[in-house]
Structures are given as C-alpha cells and as structure tokens.
C-alpha cells in the first residue's frame, strides 16, 4: 500500500501539471485572436496573466512533489527528533503546528512572488509590506490558538474511540459551521474595516431586495478591499442571525446601482434555491469521505514511511494527502456548483434585468481581467462557475 500511495501522489501531480500545460496552450492559442467580452487590451493581458499563473502552477506542483518526498523520506523522522513532549496530546499539537509552520515557510516564496510581482505587474495587488506582514501575523495567531484546540480535540478523539473518524468528522464539521457563522462578524473584521454604506439610496434598494427574497441579515457593509487588491467582489457571509451583505469598495465604485443589485440578486438566488444548504451538504459529504479514508489507513503505509501509527501521524497524512482526494472529487462537486450558478443567474436577472446582470458580469470580467475562455479540463477540475461566455449566452447576449 505504501508504494501505491506514492504512485497515486505522482499521478496526481502529473495530472495537475498536464491540466496546467493544457490550459496555458489553450489560452496562448486564443489570447491574440478576436477579443471576447473583455476589451482588446484586457483580453490580451488576461490571457498573458492566465498563462503566467498556469506556469507558476506547474512549478508549484513539482515543488510540492519534492516536499512530499522529503517529508516521507526523512522529514517526519527529523521533526520527531527535535520535538520532546512526554504528554502525547501536547506532542501531537506541537508536531502538527511545526509541520504546518515549515510548510508555510516553504510555500512563502510562491505567495510573495504572486502578490508582489505577478499581481503587481498586472495591476491587481495594492498591498504593501506592512499590511502583508500584519495579515500573516494575524493569520498565524488565529491558527496557533484555534488550530491548537482543534488538533488537541482530534488527538483526544483518536486516542479515545475505535471508530474515531466518525466522531472526528462530526467534530470538524461542527467547527466548520461555527467558523462560517462567526466569520463575517468576528473574523473578517480582524483583516478588513467594515463600514455602513454611505449611499442611502443603494442601502434602501438592497434592503428591499433582501426583504423580497425573505432574507434577514445583520446589515449591509462595505469593506476596504482596495488596500489589498483592485479586483471586484461581493458576498453574503455568515449563518443564522450573523448573515450580512458585504460589498468590496472596488465593486461599489465600478458598478452602477442596477448592476450591483443584479449581482446581489444572483447571490440571493443561491439563498432562495437552498444552495447554501446544498453546499454545506456537499462539503459534509467530501469531509466524511476524507475522514472515512484516513480513519482506515492500513498499517503498511506507516511501516513504509518508518513511523508508528500515532494520532499525529494520522493527522499529518490527512493534511498531506487530503488534496489528492479533493482533486478526485472536484469534478462532481464542480458540476453541481455550475448547475446552481445558472439558476442563480436567472433569479438575479429577475431581481433587476438580464441586461443589468449581463452588463455587471462583463464589467467584473473586464475589471478583474478574467480570461473568459478555458480548457475543458480546467473547467472540470477547478471551475465552480460556468464559463462566462455560456452564462452570457443564457442571458441572451451574443458573445461571438
């Protein structure tokens, strides 16, 4: 089984590289042709940006493969030699925190290159070093506190129950729901400044839209997203009474009121059609499959690595290999998500008009320099939204 695990991870890496190469070639063959949806200048730039990110993905995939073999070959044993806690629970927490910290540091060059080189060159990133460092410190602090508690809980469950993976799944799923509930009110404000809309007409129009959909929220807010990035976005965050409408300041600045309402109408469509509950259910299924798999890893895999089957090694393999399972399941979940997007578009167009939603989608693509065409494999494995050309055609826009 150990050899099978290695082969599967190599095949997973090759598959990711193949998709990235296919995407880069696909975009390269079209970026210099007739512009679709975007302006001619942005169409070409979006294509070039997509090619560069695909190339970076290829290098990153190879880099991840080397790190994987380094951990399997000597990393786990080396880390074990420097962590000394007699208490098994403390040992598990310390080991996984150290593993996560090392992986974060190893991945930092890619994040720095994308943020301060690639995204700066294409006019996306506006973040400065101070804000970036503060973001990392805040994120690390939250992971240190809440991550440690979750690791401790999972270690306790593994040591206490024979079928620990069932209870582990339940515990993690509850934590995920809790994080989703508190995210817009407690977590997001740590990173962004939330302020009420200063446009009373827009505020009233949004509230009328929410009332029409039967959605009770804790408010409509604008965040200072422009201090990090110029791209446009909006979202509904939270569960229960914590739900709130969040608009990026870049979005408010660039879209007209009717376009903004159509975009929010699209998001409300997900609420009306129960997509939030469906997504939670889909996430639960994916999480359950992962716990079922990692809860029944054969002893031969641990023997092959040369480590004992302990709570910290079970959780480490979960962290190391969960991306493989996610990759395999994404085509199905992506297909369901893309289906839901069409229905949400229909509702958004009913809230305002098809013309308003189409105009908003085209502005979003143009401002965000999102290349509107993708290789079918990229769509199947990575896209949760249908191709913009297909969405616009459904709205009656001729994109030829």
Walk me through this protein's architecture.
By secondary structure, this protein is mainly alpha-helical. It is built from 14 helices and four strands. The chain has helices spanning 2-28, 40-82, 88-121, 129-160, 164-191, 200-213, 249-254, 257-272, 275-294, 299-305, 311-351, 354-368, 376-382, 388-394; strands spanning 194-196, 220-223, 234-237, 244-248. A four-stranded mixed beta sheet has the order 1-2-4-3. A hairpin with a 6-residue loop joins strand 3 (234-237) and strand 4 (244-248). Helix 5 packs across helix 9 and helix 9 (275-294) runs antiparallel to helix 11 (311-351). The N and C termini lie far apart (51 Å).
Briefly, what is this?
The protein is mainly α. Helix content is 74%, strand content 4%.
List the helices and strands and how they pair.
Elements lengths: L1 H27 L11 H43 L5 H34 L7 H32 L3 H28 L2 E3 L3 H14 L6 E4 L10 E4 L6 E5 H6 L2 H16 L2 H20 L4 H7 L5 H41 L2 H15 L7 H7 L5 H7 L6
Helix pairs in contact: 1-2, 2-3, 3-4, 3-11, 4-5, 5-9, 6-8, 8-11, 8-12, 9-11, 11-12, 11-13
